[in-house]
Amino acid sequence: MSRRTPKLPSWLPVDPYILALIGTVALAALLPASGPAATVASDASTGAVALLFFLYGARLSTGEAMEGLRHWRLHVTVLVCTFVVFPLLGLAAKGLVPFVLTPELHNGLLFLCLVPSTIQSSIAFTSIARGNVPAAICAGSFSSLAGIVVTPLLAAGLLGNSGGGFSADSLLKIVLQLLVPFMAGQFLRRWVGGFLTRNKRVLGYVDRGSILLVVYSAFSEGMIRGVWHQVSAARLGALLAVEAVLLAAMLGVTWYGAKRLGFDRGDRIAIQFAGSKKSLASGLPMASVLFGAQASLAVLPLMLFHQMQLMVCAVIARRRARDPLPAPETGPARHDVGRGGTARAAR
Fold first, then answer.
1. What is the DSSP string of 111-124?
2. Distance CA 70, CA 68 (A)
């Protein structure tokens, strides 16, 4: 696979989209939207987020979701890692305030721990590592769907007013801006699903363009309000170190924890990649609703963690791809664990 894509070193998966995000942040720093332009950017960002979650809903196959429910132990494991273990580690990091992290950076780190898992990159890395790809697809989809409701509820309980004015009104905005478009997409899927499938590549640009618009609006408001003066280079370095420890801890928990639970190799790979990663595509729109003027600082830990997880998981996936596959089992089938997982992983 590395011979087919010689443009970049195999250990350095620099996503062009990350470069686009960095460019968007630089544009907001140099030319922030202010006055009437800020209002236009904010309204456009709101519409883009609604469109984004409509497309998410229209793309998620209800049939695939129901099929994936049969492997419920794996999905519950991923959900627990995403919405229980991650938040507990985020809460534990409160002990680093104010010596290592500022309160604002810790809020952003804690929000990162509440965001759902990824779909696309989890599937890609699971495939490279020869893991259970169908399980990764369903686990990522279930996590994203649950995150629409679970993430704002956890943010309300764990962040409270420290999240930049989080309130019951924010919950209502989440429902109207994210959940309602998602459900509308599910309802209209039978009519628009074919069009989305035929134009998947073009609509991918719509997805990413929507996120860039959200980033520009959030960082513009942050520049106007002067929130970036609160972060020093030393604090950013400390944040990166904390996130490296967080990622290493979750990679270890998902891999060795899945082994203790009796999952086979293919399922363990899917659990590791789906349970240790966080979605930038879901987190950024939610942050823009939940944090308002503080969104630029709130999403900074998520943006840094996203690139870090891509680089580290790419290395792990390529190493897992070189592992010898286990021999097919000849004894009684393990009906209690990952039904069909070994067969799927070996395909």
1. HHHHSPPPSHHHHH
2. 5
**252, containing H or E segment:** helix 233-260
Residues 6+ positions from 195 with CB-CB distance below 8 Å: none
Structure tokens at 149: 């409701």
Please give the structure tokens belonging to residue 56. 């998410």
Confidence tier at 277 by pLDDT (50, 70, 90)? very high
Residue 78 token pair? 């991923």
User: 290 with 142: CB under 8 angstroms?
Assistant: no
Written as six digits, the tokens of 113 are 């721990």
pTM score of the predicted model: 0.74
Centre a 10 Å sphere on the Cβ of residue 153 and count the other Cβ atoms it contains: 13
- Percentages helix, strand, coil for the chain (3-state, rounded to 5) are 80, 0, 20
Rounded Cα gap, residues 273 and 250, in angstroms: 10
The amino acid sitting at 167 is S
Side-chain half-sphere exposure of 273, counting CA atoms within 13 A: 36
CA 322 to chain centroid: 27
User: How does pLDDT run across 129-182, given as a tens digit for each residue?
Assistant: 988 888 887 888 888 888 888 888 888 888 866 555 455 666 677 777 777 887
In the block, residue with structure tokens 């478009």: 181
Residue 185 Rama label (left phi>0; alpha psi -120 to 50; beta)? alpha
Amino acid in the structure at residue 263: F
As a dihedral over the C-alpha atoms of residue 295, residue 250, residue 314, residue 320, rounded to 10 degrees, the angle is: -160
Q: In whole angstroms, give the CA distance from residue 314 to residue 121.
A: 9
Peptide bond into 98 cis (omega under 30): yes
